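Bumping with the actual sequence this time:
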Amino acid sequence: FPVLAKAGDWYGVRLSPTETGWIHASLVKERDDLSDLEFRPNAKLYSRTGSFVLGGYGGGYAFDEKSNSAVVGGRLGYYVFDRIVAEAGVSWTRVNRPAEIVESLFGVTLEAEKFSMLFYQMNVAWELLPGRQMVPYVSAGAGSTLLLGRSEPAFNFGAGTRMFLSRRAAMRWDVRDYRFTHH
């Protein structure tokens, strides 16, 4: 039988034009040298372990109908395992809050504010279906916001999908909820 693959003491062989099977080495005799043959169950699947991921992103801040602003940033990730990606990110936005009435009975208002905000974070993502073209994942992490001269710790969680356009390029979209801890 023609040998298609080898994994330890097992040989993957072609039984017919449409059938393959595995047989233990103790039951066969090699005719040719197969030392360079290795097991590859699916040539399209490959390991990303040890790979770096670099990307830019855009999003929105405070979808509350009053102080929305665009967020821009970047991330550097590292595949610790095929399913686990550790990443660090930094983002920036210019917040523009209009003056608003907080309590109409006593006429209390908040002053209009314009300030820049910088946010940095460390996240871990777990890919649910690694090795595919579309890879859903869940993510969580911690970081801090720097605004108006003070730092505000935060944690986040979310989910998304990474779509590989090629072996080296991907697009991703996710939704995250950032929870800030006020001190």
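The tokens above came from a reply further down the thread. The chain has a mean pLDDT of 82.
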